[in-house]
Design a protein that fits this description.
Shape: globular
Helix content: 25-40%
CATH superfamily: Spore Coat Polysaccharide Biosynthesis Protein SpsA, Chain A
CATH class: Alpha Beta
Number of domains: 1
Order of helices and strands: EEEHEHEHEEEEHHEH
CATH architecture: Alpha-Beta Complex
Largest sheet: 6 strands, mixed
Strand content: 25-35%
Length: 190
């Protein structure tokens, strides 16, 4: 049996787990642990130094390191994937965004009429992380925000952005039903 190589070690990086403006869901349990705790552990295992959103932006900029924005609603994102995203952001000096393919049926709606089905081939769902290379951190006037869709939209107007497909375990949960699916997906032997 061929052994897979270990993922490349990520360069030094700072990171935050985003739990603000997400209701109480970040404190629900997956495999007996709060989502926010699982996300924080993944950051640590990826070699990312955790910060608090209360850290002054000037301190973040002075570190001259990439910044990882990790959503608590993507609690089972593998540490190796986080490290790969950091390494790519540094190597390419680009914002790296974790995404998942859209699998739901999407329809056009005009007024109250449901119209044609949208081709999902070009659609992506934001996952986690969003990694800002040090050059982007240096160029921003302050913390980029906690709404990752808005953050990515704003960053894309000023900086290069690369989408990287995230593994299924990195999927975002929107409610307890999604959380039950994620827990089943990530159960040992599941």
């Amino acid at each position: 049996m061929t052994e897979l190589p270990e993922p490349a070690e990520a360069p030094p990086a700072l990171g935050v787990v985003l739990d603000a403006d997400r209701g109480s869901l970040p404190y629900a349990l997956v495999h007996g642990e709060a989502l926010v705790a699982c996300a924080a552990w993944a950051l640590g295992e990826a070699g990312v130094l955790p910060l608090d959103l209360g850290t002054p932006w000037s301190v973040v900029q002075e570190a001259e390191e990439p910044l990882v924005l990790h959503d608590a609603l993507c609690p089972m994102t593998p540490p190796g994937y986080l490290a790969e995203c950091v390494a790519r952001a540094v190597a390419e000096d680009t914002v790296v965004v974790g995404v998942r393919p859209v699998t739901d049926t999407v329809k056009h709606v005009e007024g109250e009429q449901v119209g044609a089905t949208v081709d999902r081939a070009g659609l992506l769902a934001l996952a986690s992380p969003v990694v800002l290379p040090a050059s982007v951190v240096a160029a921003l006037p302050g913390w980029p925000g906690t709404d990752l869709v808005a953050v990515v939209g704003e960053l894309a107007t000023r900086f290069p952005v690369a989408s990287v497909e995230a593994p299924a375990s990195a999927r975002r949960v929107a409610d307890l039903d999604d959380l039950a699916v994620l827990e089943a997906l990530t159960s040992p032997g599941g």
